[in-house]
Amino acid sequence: MRAGRGRTADLSGRMAEQAVLRLYLRRGAQMLATRWRGQGAEIDLIVQDGPDLVFVEVKASRSHTEAALNLLPAQMRRITQAALEYCDRNGIGEVLMRFDVALVDATGRVELIPNAFGAV
User: Fold this and answer.
1) Does residue 120 fall inside a structural domain?
2) pLDDT classification of 120: cutoffs 50, 70, 90
3) Helices and strands (H, E) in the chain, number of each type
4) 51-85: string of b/e by CB count within 10 Å (b at 16+)?
5) Is 118 among the domain residues?
6) Domain total in the chain
7) What's the CA gap between 67 and 14, in Å, rounded?
């Protein structure tokens, strides 16, 4: 039963990430990576949005508020470190970088919060 819940959560997460990716693509962004794995964290989506290299954390829950509460400062720091690792591995020097959070509720509605991390 526990394995079933894990599969359901994984599928739900993938569906939320695909919905968010479609939103970025409709806005003209270019997908660079999905579920990119660094040493300390996974980055759900990495897109090029105009001059900005955008690292997107997708949070899905029953409501946008619940989803937002699932993002903790320690996770934001790990994602930031993973983003630096991504740039290093890909030979990306100075670049405009942004950390967005995409909240997905139970109905599939997406709320994007650009530059959500501010100063981490």
Assistant:
1) no
2) very low
3) 3, 5
4) ebbbbbbbbbbeebeebeeebeeeebebbbebbeb
5) no
6) 1
7) 15
Block residue for tokens 């001059």: 51
Burial of 47 (0-12, 13-18, 19+ CB in 10 A): buried
The pairing of strands 96-104 and 52-60 is parallel
Structural domain for 103, as ranges: 2-113
DSSP 114: T
CATH of the domain at 28: 3.40.1350.10
- What is the token pair recorded at 33? 């990576």
The residue behind tokens 């599939």 is 108
CB 35 within 8 A of CB 17: yes
Which one, of 68, 44, 62, lies nearest residue 54 by Cα? 44
Predicted confidence band at 55 (pLDDT cuts at 50, 70, 90)?
Answer: very high
From CA 39, how far away is CA 79, in angstroms rounded?
10
Does the pTM exceed 0.85? yes
CB 48 within 8 A of CB 29: yes
